[in-house]
Design a protein that fits this description.
Low-confidence stretches: none
Shape: globular
Number of helices: 7
Oligomer: single chain
Number of domains: 1
Structural class: alpha/beta
Strand content: 15-25%
Radius of gyration: 15 Å
Number of strands: 8
Strand order of the largest sheet: 2-1-3-4-7-8
CATH class: Alpha Beta
CATH topology: Rossmann fold
Helix content: 25-40%
Mean pLDDT: 95
Distance between the termini: 16 Å
Length: 189
């Protein structure tokens, strides 16, 4: 199973999620794709993701996490021993999202909610002090990310497979060009 974990204020309608799903479908592997609409509450989001992993596919799952989804994917990979592809991952969202406290709206669904300190405290509970087994991680980052500094992610995942793209943006506009590399990593190639 390829479990796509969307980022902050995103949804299963994210462009990268759709690109991965399309490619898996073109390979006759569409049934291996999952991307739940995650709660804005970190604890609830993690319960949603763990329910999918406990459905009998945990260790065989390949997590593909974007931004905040990369933060979640790291915790899940450490807990379940699965591989994780991290796309412009958030490293410390409990600090980085402090500036966004207050009214929020999901970019895809339009759902309004209030980002509170309670959200940040829940995120802090999923922080991984130091990722283990670097070979289970594939870091994909762009130097032009206007939200997160790619160098922080590179320093966080030493020894992991790295793909650093010059330029681009936080949304990783070139992601579709690298979907086959995501699948190859997930398949252990």
């Amino acid at each position: 199973m390829y479990l796509y974990i969307h980022g902050f204020n995103s949804s299963p309608s994210s462009i990268k999620a759709k690109q991965l799903q399309r490619r898996l479908t073109s390979l006759g592997r569409g049934a291996e794709f999952a991307c739940p609409a995650l709660s804005h509450w970190p604890r609830e989001a993690m319960h949603q993701l763990e329910a999918l992993l406990h459905g009998g596919r945990g260790r065989d799952a390949v997590l593909v996490g974007s931004s905040l989804g990369g933060f979640y994917a790291t915790w899940l990979a450490e807990q379940h021993g699965c591989r994780a592809v991290l796309v412009n991952p958030a490293i410390t969202p409990q600090a980085g999202l402090e500036a966004y406290l207050g009214p929020q709206k999901n970019l895809y669904t339009g759902e309004p909610y209030e980002l509170t300190r309670g959200h940040l405290e829940q995120m802090a509970g999923y922080a991984v002090p130091e990722p283990t087994l670097p070979e289970r991680y594939f870091l994909m980052a762009t130097t032009g990310d206007e939200v997160l500094d790619y160098r922080t992610a590179v320093a966080r995942y030493p020894g992991a497979k790295h793909l650093i793209i010059e330029g681009s943006d936080h949304g990783f506009a070139d992601f579709e060009d690298h979907v086959d590399a995501v699948i190859a990593f997930g398949d252990g190639k």
